[in-house]
């Protein structure tokens, strides 16, 4: 007998962890003020780029003496630019607890060939942060998008550290508290919590990071696309909107629109409250359904953006095939797109809960997950 589908469906089935749902009010005509077909170095374009930087500063509360630059190649570009420019001056610790952090370890060890201390944890866990030596340069991901595990706070980072902290915060910025005094390099992409477009990355530098840039020249060559200094001085233009190469002014406009929306809902506090409410809706459902569990069992380190779930039922023999079938069923029913776990992560579901997602939609999705789960379980017993 077919299991009855829930009566209510999410209004917006977009729960992808990147690119993430656009702002709830989004329509393409909101981008009509983009200075298309004009030079990004003309006054209008420059003003837009500068506004993108300054509005980011205002909403995220970035200190006035930190530099914010718009750089090429989304978050990956920003992280690799930081690593290639800054690492090699001091000993390095690399921290990873999921796929993207593991990618930065590969960069440091295999590409830059640094003799780094590497600390890793399994999916769902985090490394022992108290053991991290912040007198070394430390590279880590604030929110592990593929495991749904986040850093709980910056208490483990010494105020008087000798090293630099280089933090990939792409799925944390605009949803979680980032302690700016503890972060020397912070990166993110517009395509995540604000539901913007990819293409550009944001690179935020503390005064100590700038000092390193101006006093240290790495042993390896830097392509033009990575160069932040000229003649031993920071290229200041990059941090007022004079980008290294040509940006997409359509993507810039889209980011400005998303920042305006963020302000209208109460800025960072409003965004965090929305993400927290979305996570709470999932938590309530998981509490009521013992066949579902969080990959991050410990609520202290559980993400409020990339929420990762696993199926816990003895009848499931092939976990990957089962989770895939559930995700496919939800996609086909047009209730949830792109919620299968990341390809390298344990089998399960990943539901984006960042601020552009409506809590009513998360709540409406939950009974559909139950429907898809029960339907797939029933199919198992038929085929057995
Ligand atoms: C933690 C983390 N780092 C890096 C990336 C790569 O981001 P991008 O494709 O915007 O460069 C992602 C993308 O999902 C991510 O989640």
TrEMBL record:
SUPFAM superfamilies for the chain: PLP-dependent transferases
| GO MF annotations, alphabetized | alanine-glyoxylate transaminase activity; L-serine-pyruvate transaminase activity; O-phospho-L-serine:2-oxoglutarate aminotransferase activity
InterPro entries from the entry? Pser_aminoTfrase, Pser_aminoTfrase_methanosarc, PyrdxlP-dep_Trfase, PyrdxlP-dep_Trfase_major, PyrdxlP-dep_Trfase_small
Task: Supply the alphabetized keyword list.
Answer: Amino-acid biosynthesis, Aminotransferase, Cytoplasm, Pyridoxal phosphate, Serine biosynthesis, Transferase
Substrates-to-products reaction catalysed? O-phospho-L-serine + 2-oxoglutarate = 3-phosphooxypyruvate + L-glutamate
Look up the record and name the pathway of this protein. Answer: Amino-acid biosynthesis; L-serine biosynthesis; L-serine from 3-phospho-D-glycerate: step 2/3
The cofactors it requires, by name, are: pyridoxal 5'-phosphate
The protein's superkingdom reads Bacteria
Q: What is its EC number?
A: 2.6.1.52
Which CDD domains does the record associate with it? AAT_I (cd01494)
Top EC group: transferase
Set out the biological process GO terms recorded for this chain's protein.
glycine biosynthetic process, by transamination of glyoxylate; L-serine biosynthetic process
Would I find Cytoplasm among this entry's keywords? yes
The keyword Cytoplasm is annotated on this UniProt entry:
yes
Region Disordered, residue ranges: 1-20
Q: What family does the Swiss-Prot or TrEMBL record give for this protein?
A: Belongs to the class-V pyridoxal-phosphate-dependent aminotransferase family. SerC subfamily.
The record ties this protein, via PANTHER family, to:
ALANINE--GLYOXYLATE AMINOTRANSFERASE, AMINOTRANSFERASE CLASS V
Q: What is this protein called?
A: phosphoserine transaminase
Organism the protein comes from: Roseovarius mucosus
The record lists the lineage as:
Bacteria, Pseudomonadati, Pseudomonadota, Alphaproteobacteria, Rhodobacterales
